[in-house]
Amino acid sequence: MMLQHIENLKAEEVKMAQQKKERAAVMMKEVEAANHEAITVKSKKIMEEKDLEQKIVDYNKAKAMREEEEAAEKLRVQQDKERETQKLREMQEKAQDRQGAIDELRAKRAFEESERLAREKERKEQEWRQKVLRDMEQARQEQFTEKERRLAEQAK
User: What is the pTM of this model?
Assistant: First the structure.
């Protein structure tokens, strides 16, 4: 029974191998036909791709030239802007220097004015002190004279 079963399995394997061979042969014929058709289609496709590649190359060359022109224009515009910016900076620096000189002159004049006012104030204070001292001296003299006059009157 076991031998019978093994024999059946072997026969089935042989049958399956034969069917597999037949299917492979059919498939080979189909593959050959498909390959022949594919080669024809591929040849056509290769020609179309070459045409397309040439168009792409031409397009890329034109695009590269446009990009170079745009880059050159951008660079020119950027350089113009940088020159303008530098010119404005220089003008601003000159204006700041001029303003600094004006501020410095104003500060110097304000300092000189405050010095002059301080000297004037000091001179007036000195004059006032001298006047007060003169007035005090005069009042002392008047008191002294008045005292002598009273003493002389009393002495009479």
Answer: 0.38
